[in-house]
Specification:
- With 496 residues, this protein is of the alpha+beta class.
- The strands form seven sheets. A five-stranded mixed β-sheet has the order 2-3-4-5-9, with no helix packed on it. A four-stranded antiparallel β-sheet has the order 1-29-28-27.
- Helix 1 packs antiparallel against helix 3, helix 2 packs antiparallel against helix 3 and helix 3 packs antiparallel against helix 4.
Amino acid sequence: MPVESGSSAAARQAKQKRKSHSLSIRRTNSTEQERSGLQRDMLEGQDSKLPLSLRSNLLDLFSQIEKEFENLYIENLELRREIETLNDRLAAEGQSFEGTDLAKGALKTKASHSTSQLSQKLKTTYKASTSKIVSSFKATTSRAVCQLVREYVGHRDGIWDLSVTKTQPVVLGTASADHTAMLWSIETGKCLLKYLGHQGSVNSIKFHPTEQMALTASGDQTAHIWRYMVQLPTPQPVADISQQQPCDDDVDFSDKDEADGEAEGPNDCPSVRMATTTLRSHQGVVIAADWLVGGKQVVTASWDRAANLYDVETSELVHSLTGHDQELTHCCTHPTQRLVVTSSRDTTFRLWDFRDPSIHSVNVFQGHTDTVTSAVFTVGDNVVSGSDDRTVKVWDLKNMRSPIATIRTDSAVNRISVSVNQKIIALPYDNRQVRLFDMSGVRLARLPRSNRQGHRRMVCCSAWCEDNTSCNLFTCGFDRQAIGWNINITALLQEK
């Protein structure tokens, strides 16, 4: 009986405190409009070079921050009261024991467990509220410097890879699971040419450094080299899609937003059906291919656990690069040196050196714990690797023993790309997000994604084209579309 009366009294006391505190909150809320009005009056009276609209926007943001922290403070007080009530109750229950050491130990354990649970709840609440505040700032930043410019729609299945030509005319190329590769006008979004030579999924596309030739890898166990000729249409005015629909990074897609039926492809698009050169030495799916510097040789990566080096003119196999224990996932060549990097499901990537014609060396790097989805060179002396283990690592070619930076993410990373001039890493994720980081691992921005724009499925690949004034970053995914983005790199680096 004494224990029950003591706990009920404590409960009544806590309830009265919460009630009186809730009354004080109401009084505070009733004066918010007056306080807001006073603050705006003070803004107008202050001498500042910032426009009044911008200052007003900042005021609103800081008001939101103040409210969030006020709510956190209130929750903190409530949790403290609950802890005090629980401790009083446990102390009263402890009196019913006979004062033995066993009772004291049980009481201490129970109190410690309950306090730990409340402490964890407080941390979780604080972290969630703080993340919401930070998210609002990042959303504002992303909308300002990252804008969706154009969507390239026409494939009947997911798009695995995309690339931009290095010669004039500059066009966008996409490789799709619908067995086709397409060339697009960047400015108009119109399909200029369709390649129909493969009998399986087209898994990658890369363009010759100086000629109008494309290299595609396919699930039909071949890689094709084919020539193209396109004529660019008259550019149309670019519609600012970001102004048509507010951009909320945290709005998610539902599966019903995407039509289940097949998209109507561009029927009036010219087509190429025959390859100039067919490379046939693999015994499995050819998952990727790339041109070596100079364009006289190409390298292919396959699920048969080998990468092959071919001579373009003769289509003969020069080297078979073996050593990976599982299927290859990607290959990439250095832009200025005869270096190749291959990645694999065996959690490693390998660096192959062909700079000395008489001998080629290989180095194995074991920096990941799951499939290495891609590893790419930068213009300088770095390699950037991404993995299904949800990490991206930056390596120095001069010292590959350990990464110089590690980016930890919340989703598996697919085929990444690094901008040439500013070395900004664009990361496409399984969770439909695309984020930008610098080489030191600092997050710069997240591309906008809402119910009206962005990718609806896994984002498979990203590709930079910094010289293009309208779209300087491209992404593609399994929602059957490629997207052209305009990234204000100068503003992005200033806000860093």
